[in-house]
Amino acid sequence: MSMVGGGGQKGRLAIIAGRGFLPLYVAEAARRAQDDPYIIALSNEADADFSGFSTQIAGIGDARLIEQIVRREGIGRVVMSGGVHKRPDWGSIHPTLRVVFRLPSIVRTLINGGDDAVLRMVIGIFEGMGCRVCGVHEIAPDLLAQTGLLHGPALTDQDRIDIKAGVDAASALGRLDIGQGAVCVGGRIIALEGAEGTDSMLSRVADLRRSGRISQRKKGVLVKLCKPQQDLRADLPTIGPSTIAALSAAGLAGVAVEAGRSLIVERAAAGELAEQHGLFIAGVDLGLDGLGLP
Could you tell me if 101 and 201 lie in one domain? Predict the structure, then answer.
C-alpha cells in the first residue's frame, strides 16, 4: 500500500486509538485511501476490534515505546481519535530525551491544564518526533457534518429557540474547557456536558424527565460544538447511533452539531435511527445568521 497520504504527505499513518468505534472508522477510511495505517491502541482506553490492522498497545505517556514504533514503522503522520477518559499518571510516563526537555511544561499541563491542554501536550510530543499531526477530518472527510437539516422532521420554532440557546451555552462551556454539549428544553438549559461524556449526560436528562423535573410536554435539543479554542486535530465533537438512541430515551427532539467541525459516525445507521424515532439531526454554522437552519 501507498506510504503517501492525502495532500502528498509522506510517511506511514499512525492512528492513536482511544475509546469507541471512531478509530476503527478512521482506519477503514485510511485504508480505502490506499494508506496502511498502524494502530497505537491506548492501554485501558481502546476497545474496538482492530483485527486486520497492525496494532501495538501503548500507554498515552509511554513516549519511549511510541518513539520506537515511530522509528520502526516509518511513521510520518499521526491522527488521534476516540475518547480518553483518564489522564496519564506519573508511573505511566516513560520519557525520551526529547520529552525530558519538555517536562516542565508537561508537569504544568497535567496539574493545571484542561482536556485540551493534555491533547496539546500529546500533539507536541509527536511533533517533537518529527511527525505531522493531522485531524480526523483530513483522513475521513466524509464523516464531517454539513450545514442544514441532515435527517428527520422539519424543525419547529421551539426547536430553533432551543438550538440557539444551546449554542450560547455550549460556547460558554467550551471557553471554560469543560465540555462540548448542552441540552436545552423549552428555552432553558437543563444539562451541561462534563467529563462523563455526552451519552452519560443524556442519561441524566432521561432520569430528570422520568422524575418529573423536566416538562413532559416540551421536548428539547442537544447541541454539540467545538470549543472556541479547540485544536481541530483532536477531539472533534462526535455523534452516532448511540447518541440518537440516548436522545430518544431522554425524550428530546433532536441534535444540532457544528457543521464542518463535528463528526457523524455510522451516518447511515444514525440517520435511519433518527428517522425511526422522529428525531432530527442538523448541522449549524456559527458564522451564519440563523445558524443556517431551514
Answer: no
Give 10-residue mean pLDDT values along the chain (294 residues): 46 92 93 95 91 92 86 95 65 52 53 56 78 93 95 97 97 90 96 89 94 90 92 88 96 97 94 97 94 90
Give this prediction's pTM: 0.82
pLDDT of the residue at 94: 53
Q: How far apart are CA 239 and CA 21, in angstroms?
A: 11
Question: Would you give the distance in Å from CA 83 to the centre of its chain?
Answer: 7
Q: CB neighbours of 84 closer than 8 A, spacing ≥ 6?
A: 18, 19, 42, 45, 60, 118
Rounded CA separation 62/167 (Å): 37
Domain residues for the domain of 79 are 6-139
Query: What does the pLDDT read at residue 253?
Result: 98
- Give the integer Cα–Cα distance in Å for 31 and 34: 5
CATH number of the domain to which 42 belongs: 3.40.50.20
280-284/148-151 β-pairing:
antiparallel
Residue 36 CA to residue 275 CA, distance in Å, equals 36
Pick the last residue of a domain from 139, 161, 177. Answer: 139
Considering the domain architecture, whether residues 135 and 148 belong to the same structural domain is answered as no
The dihedrals phi and psi of 153, each to the nearest 5 degrees, come to -70, 160
Give the distance between the most distant pair of CA atoms in the chain. Answer: 60
133 CA to centre of own chain: 16
pLDDT at 116: 53
Helix (H, G, I), strand (E, B) or coil at 183: strand
Q: Are residues 80 and 192 in the same domain?
A: no
Domain count, the chain: 2
Which residues, other chains included, contact 102 with Cβ-Cβ below 8 Å and sequence gap of 6+?
124, 125, 128
